[in-house]
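Entry:
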Amino acid sequence: MDNKHLPGDPGDKDKNLKEENELLKLKLRAEHGANFSETSDDLPPEVENEWLKHISFFEKNYADREFTTVYKSIGKPDFKKAEMLSDKEIEAELDRLLELLNQHNICLDVIGEYKDSVIYKFITEELFEEEIELHDVPGMFTHYTYEEFHPNPLLDARDAVEEIIKGLEDEKFEPKFYTWRFHENGIIDTSGQKIDADEIDKRYLLLRESIEAIKLNKLEQDKVEILSDEKAVYTGKIEYEYKMIGEKNWRKFNETLQLHLRPSQYAAMWGVTKMDFPGISL
């Protein structure tokens, strides 16, 4: 008597799970366009079954998401246009709206310094219209950052200066980890030649390999002049020092720094297109 497939036999269980797994895969392919690599065939049937069920649960919940606007999600509060309010009234109304957003687990982060009227106008004219997912997860906050909507060239330039210097001593990461603040279309070097993003990384790496240590002491009296929607120039007084490999003495600089900036096509930021960085050239 052949008893290899008696009821309750582990072989039957594996066979049933494999058939269920194939049905789950077919359903996920048909409904969500899922693709499965051959590596999934190496999984034990029970492990693959749990994995597929998790994917199915996630896809169903993702597809069933509902959306509304930020304004509706906080109860459609009454508000007046910024032009109708005095500075004092705007200050009070801004505090009220920020508190209301916070009560509904929505946070607005503002990195730079702006007039209350600018942030109030942003909230009432832009943020209120943003689409947000309907959810009720205790403790979960939705974060927005003002500069993601309105990139700030002054802040971006400061970050670029700090990252350029920090990266010249940090050997743990590839150059691109620190050179991403340069514009994706490349820069004009000190000789007036155009160099692309890959060449920037190569030159930055060569510079890093020649520097033993570097320190930023001060970056002050800085400002940015916006020339157009596509151009800005940053200037600042920089005090820093570095020591080349094989040298005993530190090279010290206390001079004016200048960066030319242009909005990135791919990120909410202004990228460096040219720089006059005392002591550093690419």
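The mean pLDDT is 88.
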